[in-house]
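To: structure subgroup
Subject: Chain for Friday's discussion

All,

I'm putting the inputs and outputs inline so they're searchable in the archive.
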Amino acid sequence: STGMSDNAEIKNTINFLKNKKAHFVILQCSTMYPTPLKYVGMNIVEEIKNKYKCLVGLSDHTGSVYPLVYGLSKKFALLEFHVTFHENMFGPDNSSSITFEELKDIVDFRKNFEILSNYKIDKNKIFNKFKLTKKIFGKSLSLKTSRNKNYIIKDTDLVSKKPGNGISPSQRNKIIGKKLKKNLSNKKFLRFDDFY
């Protein structure tokens, strides 16, 4: 933990540990109880990680879940923090501690964050699985107003309506300029065989 260390001491400590081939994690810490969020120093975690290529984490004394959620989302190697049975309990660390209820929220966030981060999906497989649903919630082209046989379709004649079991709006250019084979109601979806 680097709570009372300056940059030179951090550098010397990391070099010493690396020379000893030690397994270690450097924790950013601001020795304030509790620590205001603006003094947590997340930038230092990133600086140490990038400069020394070592595992980094946070020793937190804010009494808040926010730095912990941030650390989990950035995949810090280690989070160290205080937990109290009740926020009104007596003790020097109580004001800088989270409750067990908040700890449960943190654990739940971590589990769900891991799921969101690690499980990949294939959009094509999802598409195939929901083809029927897409038809229901998709849209099809219809006439804005009913038109007679031999009417030439213009872009302004077309509207999109659910469901998606007719001509897709993405294919509207294929029927613009075509003539109707018969009288067509605006209550029906258009079909390619309605035109010639």
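Points worth raising on Friday:
The beta strands are 25-28, 55-59, 78-80, 82-84, 97-99, 140-143, 158-161.
The CA atoms of residues 7 and 166 lie 67 Å apart.

D.
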